[in-house]
Amino acid sequence: MKKLITILMSITFISLSTAFAQYQVKGSVVDINGESVIGASVLEIGTKNGTSVNVDGTFVLNVASQNSMLEVSFIGYKTIQVAASQASKIVLHEDSELLDEVVVIGYGTVKKTDMTGSIVAIKTDEINRGAVTSPSQMLMGKVSGLLVTPASGTPGESATIRIRGAASLNASNDPLIVIDGVPVTSDGGAGMADPLSTVNPDDIESYTVLKDASATAIYGSRASNGVIIITTKKGTGRGAQVSYSSSYSIKQNTDGYNVMNGDEFRDFLTTTYPDNTKIQSLLGENSIDWQDEVYELGFSTDQNLSVYGTAFEEKLPYRVSLGYNYDGATVKVGDNKRTNLGVNLAPKFLDDHLTINLNFKGIYQKTNWANNPMGSALSFDPTQAKYFTGDQSEVANGYWNWLNADGSANTLSSINPLSSSYDYVNKSTSKRSIGNLQIDYNVHGLEDLTAHVNLGYDLSETDGEKYNKLGSISAMRIANDLYTDYNNYNANTLLEAYLNYSHDFANKQHFDIMGGYSWQHNYVRYKNTLYTNAEERGLEEDLYQVVPKNREEYYLLSFYGRANYSIASKYLFTFTLRDDASSRFSDDNRWGLFPSAAFAWNMEKENFLKDSKVISSMKLRAGWGETGQQDIGSDYYPYLARYQSSTSLTMTYPIGADGSYISTLSPQAYNPNLKWETTTTYNLGLDFGLWNDRLTGTVEGYYRKTSDLLNYVSTSLGSNFSNTVISNIGDMENKGLELSFNVIPIQTKDMNLSIGANVTFQDTKITKLTSNDSDDYLGVMTGGGLTGTGGYTSLYRTDYTPYSFHLYEQLYDANGNAVENGLVDRNDDGLITDVDRYITGYSPTPDAYFGLNVKFSYKQWDAGLNAHGSLGNYVLNAVKATSSTSFSDAYTKGYLDNLNKDYLVEGWTDAFNINQYYSDMFLEDASFFKLDDINVGYSFGLKNSAVRFRVGASVQNVFTITKYDGLDPEITNSNGVDSNIIPRPRLYTIRLNIKF
Amino acid sequence: MRKLINIFVLVAALMFVFNSCTNDLDTLPLNDYDATSETAYADQDSYLSGLAYIYGYWALVSQNDFGSSDIAVDDAGQSELCRMYMVLNEMSTDALKCPWSDTYVNAIQYNQWTSTEVSATISVYTRCMKGITLCNEYLLQTTDAKLSGRGQSALEDDIHTYRAEARFNRALYYYTLMDLFGNPPFATPENIGGANPSQISRADLFDWLETELTDLTSDDSALKNYGEVKFPRVSKGAAHALLARMYLNAEVYTGTPRWADAKTQAKEAIDAGYKLHDNYAELFEQDNTTNGAVDDEFIFGVSYDKDKTESYGGTTTLMNASLSSDANSGIGSEFGVDLISTDNWNGYHVADDYVSRFNLQDVVWGASSGFGYNRENSDKRAFFYNIGNTEEFDNTTTASGWYCWKFNALKSDGTVVSLSEVNGTFSSSDYPLCRLAEMYLIYAEAEVREDGTVDATGLSYIKALRDRAGVSTPAASDITLDWLLDERARELMWEGHRRTDLIRYGYFTSINFPWTLKGGVMNGKVNLPTYKTIYPILTSDINANSDNLVQNPGY
User: Fold this and answer.
1) How far apart (Å, rounded) are the C-alpha atoms in residues A798 and A794?
2) Which residues, listed in sequence order, are joined to residue A935 by a DSSP beta bridge?
């Protein structure tokens, strides 16, 4: 019986097999040079049936029939589809040969060869990447003119992106980010600061970076800082395919500050103040390394699953993806958890004349914000215990802290780093969704005309709470310990419609014109409710204050158009015009016109280059245009004379009946003449490819001038309600030269090496700040944060780069040692005052920055590295400035503060005159080179299976070369003052990708 | 044809969308608290709220919280008007020195300020000018015509009083500018949103103030009488008192002395109904709003409350800025409490030059307990402490000279406010910008200036102050101008009078009246340039209003 069953089953199996595999394909796969492409994957479309090319360069696959379609793909090559009957010799073409590549631009697409503006398109690929938690990381060091400053080590924090430097002092300098046709807001509220993080990096198909005005002017009053367009992946191919990737990272702090340990601190104080009994009485007996106490190993993981293909008889391309990211901090305590869902449907109807494109992206993020413990870890007395003991063991939640005689907290001391980490809670939950419905209709009977409608939205909401744990030292120190319940909601809705007419004329002329309209509404609702901190939080009776920032909205209306005209694909002309209105400005200043024009010349098509053996492509581009910046801050009605009635319960005055407290009403400062900043850009570029594009590159120069620059200028007192009012009064210039090269030194069947490098030289200076700009006008004092209250470090000043350091000149003795409180009295009046400062000529803005990317593959192995760096950026080392002297009068206030061994200046034992903090001796060259990541991977398929794998490993934040004395030369403060950030950790990552 | 129809339909559809949306651009604020003047004053309670910010602007740095400022300054907490008013008037003299290294502290305490603005001058000048602008706007918005336009004529009686109080406040802001900066911009309601204000000379401002304040004291004045409104609201006595102070210093402001007028106005203020509170210490204690002291004796001043009127300036600074942690607990133990102030910022000190005017009994240095003198037998107006400090005053260390704890955490019942209480950092004690005692002293000084000696009334005033302080009253013949200056130093310490007094006496700039670190010189034996009797007009305001403003001479 058993035998019978076995025989039956065998027969069934054999017949089934033969039913599905009636045709055997034997083929070879080669590249254009005839070299075998080993490891290439061969898949029978619509099935899971597949194999990979063996070491001979051949494959064998049984398919359903000779009409079955095969898909052949390999990393670095263009995927092709061939019929089984045609598969005996398959030639794969390299990706870089995709000359017809289409690039997504504002309101349309353009063929790469037809581009006239400064546009860089990057396709994401799997090869050269480490552990990426945010899309902005993928752009770091990849594009000339694009500077990405990564966030600190705090999970959930966002990177800063600048395209061709900052164009503004007071308005936003963030580029406009357009995700699948929806311009997204950059102020999504706490927990959702980075609009890029809305997109799962794994879902991104391509980035387009629009740098010059001829490319960006189509976005008008939001485009002066450049535009980044993100296009997500769509369903392709036939049937259903699955892609899964998974990565795990260990994060580790690599460096710390060299503060004294307990014994060193005791010895030091005893030696320095031998007779001071007060100090001796304050010293403890322990030796704690507080940095060790707050650092910990971090862990992060990224999981992505996507299913894509076409359904309903190949009528409905679809892609659904699900991502999960966990990112743990390397200091106690914090993490970020993010879940992304992405759906794209792109069906076509009416003989392919009507295309519907439906995008949905959802993100759900929970952040546990780490409280930066670095400041207290550096300064907390290392001789004290971690915990209170005995009778006191309940005090301050048990964490040892400095107390006054009456048992109250010493409010001036630093606090126990463990308490700083564990006793503070700030948790937020964010939800965001971006989606749109795009309809393209190719008019029947007039196929040159296409109508496009785009309905989009971007909704986000963040809910959070923050408080000090009851009984904690922070709660004890604060005059009024509060529990904050915060909620931010942002709704951005969009309606766009345009018509596009495109026509090829007989004599190789091409013309297309597009005209459209856009309406956008941005609505923000903030609600911060403050309660007295209590056991049961958020009770009505504990209500303290509803922070008066409630609901705001603005509208943008635009008409825009673009015309392209080309002759023989050789001479290309582009004109754009946008008429923009923003409700942020008064009726008189509401509308603005932003034009641009560009010309490009594809020189390789000319006779004199046509036959060149060396030059494979060469294009000269020139462009001009104007763009604007209407995002001038969080006040959406700055032009309007307004009254504010205060909702604060702590800022009232007792003039009511019987001395009752009355809330205040006050007129607010305003500027009725306010309008946007305008930036005019000139751009000249040369793209070239040599030796069959083995070497490609771009050399590009730009000049940008921002006029009507917003500056806070003094108002005549008595005529307005503040001493400064924001006004369109200044000018600023940006000049730059960008070079980028990609070279492929090795390109054989087994081995590929590609090296990309780019460098940007830039020069930014303010050319006007006030209406009369006399030499007497020092400029706007800015920066600071060095000494608790007051003080500034930098200037906005005419003829200088923004944030140019304005400091005192340090005095040195005959031996070259810095003299404590010795500053140069530049005006010789016997006093050191602000007028003795000088403009150092240095600023945090780099003179040049660069990126380097290397990709290498050998057979199934791949490897890569990414690096970036900058030159000529200066940093004021605030950590050093505040810990250079051994003197501390802290003991007179009842506590002790630890000192940094490296930063103590020999012989400096006095109290600092406040000006000493602002000495140029603390200004350092922070030029650096960082190896961001190195990675290696191995790809393989299984025999007789379409399943493909790649396993990879990477190290991120590998090393930094710099002369800078602080922890990290790449600081997150735009003002160039380095205060303690949570250090960026090193990551060790393993990664697995599976596709079938 | 079909093509044309297709195009037409598309264009028509798009045009429909365009037109329906252009009105969206006229969006107005969505929040109730965000209003225009008309919507704001539609609410009847708003009139008191508008006046609240005018009064409160001495204490409040913004409408939102103590950590944010409504004007551009370095630090919100240190931009409070009352705090910096006190700095400009006391730190520039022998009454106050501070080892903190803030730029403004050194510029002011060493008399080394220049035309470069520092946060003390920025804050006082800007907040007084903004205070004036708030008053001007209030007067524009509360006319009878405006009220009737809003159908609120029934409110007229109350609002006439509010307007008179706003005018007094405006006069006080102008007076402060006249005294400190000499020749400020003269802002009128017409300047709001209009032309920049012109400059007014000190003498012309004196005349304007005289007219304005005299009008506020007249029978027609809508200001109430003493007792009809509660401090910090002002009554007619306040206008008399400010006139008295102005006449006392008239020679400085205009070149012409007005001693008789000073005496007359001081007497008017004294007779308005205020009375000397029987306990000097209680005037400055945490519950001075409720213990009777403020109601009795404060003519005008600044109100604070640790929960409802929070500020890092005013009496919060005066209470917390002075003491080291040891001094804090040391003084506390003398009163049987843990701490005498809620925090130890360890900054404000007093050199012996000033303290010696109190004739303290049995002063010792280097003791380990007590106050450093016999407080029982000394002037009750002395609140000093020297334990742990060296006698030789050295402003580079905190452990030298005297601490002053006149403003402290004590309440009348002997208990203290502590940091561990809700909002414990903040002080609730009100600050006197003008007390009845000052009127007594103005009367006496004007008498002596006019007649050479004090009359019986003047002597009775002096005696009342001396009796309360528990010290004997000298014979009328011993009450000289210099004695009166010292008596003012004792009675009105840290109440914002010292600089004005020294200038009136001609001592402020004179080498013959040295004090430690005057002009930045240790023994203080220097002449200060006479232009330092007024502070410079803010350079930023001159830049913004260059057609009208000229810098004060000397700067």
Assistant:
1) 13
2) A864, A954
B4 has a chain A CB within 8 A of its CB? no
State the residue for tokens 């081995």. A751
Please indicate whether, in this complex, the C-beta atoms of B6 and A444 are within 8 angstroms of each other: yes
Pairing mode, if any, of strands A298-311 and A240-252?
A: antiparallel
What tokens were used for A358? 């439906």
**CA gap A975, B213 in Å, rounded:** 49
Tokens of B96: 């106050």
Mark which residues 24-63 of B lie under 8 Å from A by CB.
24-37, 39-40, 46, 48-53, 55-56, 59-60, 62-63
Tokens of B65: 């919280």
| Contact status of B71 with chain A (Cβ, < 8 Å) | yes
Nearest CB to A718; choose among B14, B51, B129: B129
What pLDDT, on the 0 to 100 scale, is given for residue A97?
Answer: 46
DSSP E strands, A150-203? 160-163, 176-179, 182-184
With an 8 Å Cβ cutoff, is B475 touching chain A?
no
Q: Quick one: which of A513, A502, A506 has its CA closest to A448?
A: A502
Question: Residue A28: pLDDT above 70?
Answer: yes
Q: Cis check for the bond before A37: say yes or no (omega within 30 of 0).
A: no
Q: Which residue of B has its CA nearest to A663?
A: B49
Question: What is this structure's pTM?
Answer: 0.82
Q: Using CA atoms, how far apart are residues A826 and A838, in angstroms rounded to an integer? A: 8
Burial state string for B445-463 with b = 16 or more CB within 10 A and e = fewer than 16: bbbbbeeeebbeebbebbe
Angle ∠(A730,A734,A739) on CA atoms, nearest 5: 170
Q: Which long-range contacts (CB under 8 A, 24 or more apart) does A392-397 make?
A: A394/A471, A396/A471, A396/A472, A396/A473, A396/A476, A397/A423, A397/A469, A397/A471, A397/A472, A397/A473
Asked if the C-beta of A826 comes within 8 angstroms of chain B's C-beta atoms, the answer is no
Query: Cα(B491)–Cα(B436) distance, rounded to whole angstroms?
Result: 11
**What would the pLDDT profile of A726-741 be if each residue is shown by its tens digit?**
889 889 999 999 999 9
Chain A residue closest in CA terms to B108: A833
How far is the C-alpha of A676 from the C-alpha of A632, rounded, in Å? Answer: 7
pLDDT of residue A12: 42
Q: Is the Cβ pair B310, A667 closer than 8 Å?
A: no
Residue among B24, B64, B426 whose CB faces A479 most closely: B426
ipTM of the complex: 0.95
Q: Count the neighbouring beta carbons within 10 Å of the beta carbon of residue A281.
A: 8
Nearest C-alpha in A relative to B191: A719
pLDDT 10s digits, A610-646? 888 888 889 999 999 999 888 887 778 888 888 998 8
State pLDDT tens for residues A818-860. 999 899 999 887 778 778 899 999 999 999 999 999 999 898 8
Question: How far is Cα A758 from Cα A768, in angstroms, rounded to an integer?
Answer: 32
Among chain B residues, CA nearest to A475: B420
CB atoms within 10 A of CB A612: 12
Instruction: Please report the pLDDT score of residue A749 as a whole number.
Output: 77
Q: How far is A679 from chain B (nearest CA, A)?
A: 23
| Cβ under 8 Å to B: A residues 699-718 | 712-718
Q: Percent of chain A, pLDDT > 70?
A: 93
Go through A637-675 and write b for each residue having 16 or more CB atoms within 10 A of its CB, e for each that does not. bbbbbbbbbbbbbbbbbbbbeebebbbbbbbbbbbeebb
Q: Do A406 and B78 touch (CB under 8 A)?
A: no
| A738 contacts A701 by C-beta, under 8 angstroms | yes
Give CA–CA dist B266/A345, Å, rounded: 86
Residue of A655, A829, A882, A887 best to disrupt the B interface, most CBs of B under 10 A: A655
CB proximity list for A567: less than 8 A, separation 6 or greater: A508, A509
Residues of B in contact with A894 (CB under 8 A): 324-326, 344
